[in-house]
Amino acid sequence: MSGNRGDLSSKIFNLDNWIMRFFSRIFDVVILNFAFIICCIPIITIGASLTAMYSITLKMVRNEESHIIRGFLKAFKQNFKQGTVIGMIAIIITFFITVDLRIIGIIGDDKFKVLQVLCYVLAIWAYIIFLYAFPLLAKFKNTTKEVFKNSFILSVINLKWTILLILLNIPFVLMLFYSGLSMFLLFTILIICGFSGLALIQSFIFGKVFEKYES
């Protein structure tokens, strides 16, 4: 009987056991999330940080990652310049769209309804393009111009996956606006594992999209 207990204990704490692998993966996601948040603190580095995070999660879905922090910092350094440029473009576009919508809302004139709709359309397309841009930069070597062009093309020809990627963000949006408690819960999740967790889920989709072009 004692021998059986020993066998059970060795199986539970065996690093190859699925339970241990599951908790190891959760730990990796939490560590990656903290690395991402810390490297986003200057704001202007959010693009490089996003690229580095996707570099790790794209490897995670294929079980190719090794050391999380070391791999993240290496990818952050390699993609710092290009990732920062693309990230700053995203920030600038978001800023101007937000300001325009705010001004239109303050004016409240029906004459600007068409402009308001155009702003929303631009916001959606910009979001979709940047949704692909950082994983694409993490996976392939492209010029900045090619990143935007290929992001647009991939988002269109893989429309079903693009729609699914957008739907994955809806629970976060609902939690943000539903109530104060849900907003607090959302921020708690984001701080612990939300960013990297979502990136990991998205990376399963990006992996399917990118595998056709890896050769």
TrEMBL record:
Keyword set includes Transmembrane: yes
Name this polypeptide is given: DUF624 domain-containing protein
Recorded superkingdom: Bacteria
InterPro entries per the UniProt record, alphabetical: DUF624
Pfam families: DUF624
Keywords for the protein's UniProt record, in alphabetical order: Membrane, Transmembrane, Transmembrane helix
Segments crossing the lipid bilayer: 30-54, 84-108, 114-138, 159-178, 184-206
